[in-house]
Amino acid sequence: MKAAFINETGPPSVIQYGDLPTPEPSENQVLVKVGAVAVNPVDTYIRNGANYWELPVPFVIGCDLAGTIEKVGSGATRFKVGQRVWGTNQGLMQRQGTFAEYCAVDEDWLYATPDNVSDEDVAACSLVGVTAHLGLFKENANLQSGESIFIHGGSGGVGSMVLQMAKIAGAKVITTAGSDEKVELCKSLGADTVVNYKTEDVSEAVAKFAPDGVNVVWETLREPDFETLVPYLAERGRLILMAGRDARPAFPVGPFYVKGCSLHGFVMFKATPDELRACAEDINRWLSEGKLKSRIGTVMPLSEAAAAHALQEENTLNQVGSLAGKIVLKP
Fold first, then answer.
1. Where are the chain's structural domains?
2. For 141-265, which CATH class?
3. CA torsion 216→222→225→231, rounded to 10°?
4. Is 2-127+272-330 CATH 2.40.50.140?
5. pLDDT of 33-60, one tens digit each?
6. 297-309: per-residue pLDDT in tens?
7. Same fold, 2-127+272-330 and 141-265
8. The whole model's pTM is what?
9. In whole angstroms, how far apart are CA 284 and each of 85, 87, 116, 245, 275?
10. Strand partners, 36
């Protein structure tokens, strides 16, 4: 089979595209013929060597996939040959990744794809969708209908999912974007107020939107500015972090604790299969009903995986702003 893989960590140029043996599913795995995969910032970090674990060699890159089951392991019972599925959380915790024509995946990490949803759309929503869901609901933000949320960057992969899910939950949303085009995109996704952070005063807009503060602040940036964000919070507000492993910012403890606020950091790859399955059930229903829409910025062939990683890094690390939505690759 063809695959995009690395034998050593480094820049996008270390990615090779070539032949690897087609994997055989073990007892609890299924073999998926891949229809689409998506690129995430974490993919580029892992490729560049920022790992908590050793990588298998060769290592197939990528977390997300959508496709059709080709073969079922002897102990796998959730799915049948020919069934369409999607998943994420591959390429992590020493699991092989997804950027290949075929992937052997433990059935616990897969979910049935709704008949009226394409492989491209569900792949584009996978990691970013479960990340948004994990952070917004239950023990993290526990967002409730009628509450308000500030999303720092509502046009990005995760930000656009948070925006849409917050509106589905009945929340009032204010978000930022870096261009007039991205402002319009956020409005089309349902945001109540969108602030162009390059031309408008964000703090002033938040104060006007929620004079007593917002209930939830969702930070997408790798270097959070807590001096700016904490004043946005209402009494008992919740601040959600989804990035910034190397960040060491100053934190205004006094203004934070006197309002009874809480800070929540999480990483999706530490979620259990059951936790992710609960996310997937909502995502499937919302996609099927048309309430949740994928944000695809560009579609490329899998053979251009190195170029796709370079494009993702330009936008994640260098903030060039040339990408609005996910990069989807097709074998």
1. 2-127+272-330, 141-265
2. alpha beta
3. 0
4. no
5. 999 999 999 999 999 998 778 899 999 9
6. 899 999 999 999 9
7. no
8. 0.94
9. 11, 11, 10, 30, 15
10. 66
